[in-house]
């Protein structure tokens, strides 16, 4: 029997890519998603169970039906700006929803969870690159909701023996190299899909938020990590959880920073089109530079990014956006 893994948010961007990787690793991924932001067409490697993590009775049904060996927990709201204007929505979904999930796990003796955290838990770090010892001081409710869950996970480990691996992604990007699934957030706020849409003429321009940062070209620097590499890290984390039965946390990035202008140039090169830009003020709360120190993940997760060079990230994202839709590969 294949091990069953409950994947909350499995119809979303990173969740659907992880379901594919789980299936390739001979697991059965059960996607649990309320489809608020997910896409049922993205669920191709196991069943889709419609449901909300805020719905305790539905969670109970799912745990009874599948008795999952472990949970990979992506379901959350992730719009930083909205989290500032509507924090209650974020704490309820991201924090209260996670507590429901943990309670179901506890009741059913499910003792392992992999949690999607973010580099936003570090706020505006003083030292670059950011390793796992950096001070955690998030500057918006989204980042704080994720940090709260990190703390709650520690308490559940200590009190009930529920083990966790926290994976703090930097900027997820790119699309499945086979082309069947990719990034479709509605509304889209992420840089790479917006720049690609401008190159494809689906938007009239892209806005550059801040051109006077203290960086080489004045625009903000991020660490873009290919979604397929992130998916692989979840499979590796699952193996580690099984093997070691201890909780841990990892920063997931490449260690390489890329500026907004460098992204635009790369999209222009791949699309052979000019991307019209408009220079704007900095977006509030955007740090100038966020780059991971991935050494701990490289050493202890036995993980190597394979698709995260800028060329492959932009190329796979461009091909997927050009075709425009999910399809079975
Ligand atoms: N995309 C990034 O760059 C990035 C970076 C760091 C962390 N993260 C985190 O990774 C996770 C996945 O991000 P993504 O980009 O794939 O987002 P996404 O919106 O594509 O996926 C999230 C999924 O969760 C579902 N969902 C939300 N609330 C739910 C609820 N209450 N019950 C059931 N399902 C619910 C949505 O319908 C969606 O399918 C999130 O937790 C996000 O905070 C993302
Ligand atoms: O139209 C745009 C959109 C973005 N940016 C800039 O591009 C960079 C990347 O922005 P974006 O793609 O929106 O990602 P982040 O704001 O870095 O946030 C993402 O990455 C975080 C981790 O770094 C996650 O926690 C969030 O969920 C996820 O949205 C930032 O400097 C933005 O200011 C622009 O200049 N123009």
Automatic annotation (TrEMBL):
<keyword id="KW-0119">Carbohydrate metabolism</keyword>
<feature type="domain" description="NAD-dependent epimerase/dehydratase">
    <location>
        <begin position="5"/>
        <end position="253"/>
    </location>
</feature>
<protein>
    <recommendedName>
        <fullName>UDP-glucose 4-epimerase</fullName>
        <ecNumber>5.1.3.2</ecNumber>
    </recommendedName>
</protein>
<keyword id="KW-0520">NAD</keyword>
<keyword id="KW-0413">Isomerase</keyword>
<dbReference type="InterPro" id="IPR005886">
    <property type="entry name" value="UDP_G4E"/>
</dbReference>
<dbReference type="InterPro" id="IPR001509">
    <property type="entry name" value="Epimerase_deHydtase"/>
</dbReference>
<comment type="similarity">
    <text>Belongs to the NAD(P)-dependent epimerase/dehydratase family.</text>
</comment>
<comment type="pathway">
    <text>Carbohydrate metabolism; galactose metabolism.</text>
</comment>
<dbReference type="InterPro" id="IPR036291">
    <property type="entry name" value="NAD(P)-bd_dom_sf"/>
</dbReference>
<comment type="subunit">
    <text>Homodimer.</text>
</comment>
<dbReference type="Pfam" id="PF01370">
    <property type="entry name" value="Epimerase"/>
</dbReference>
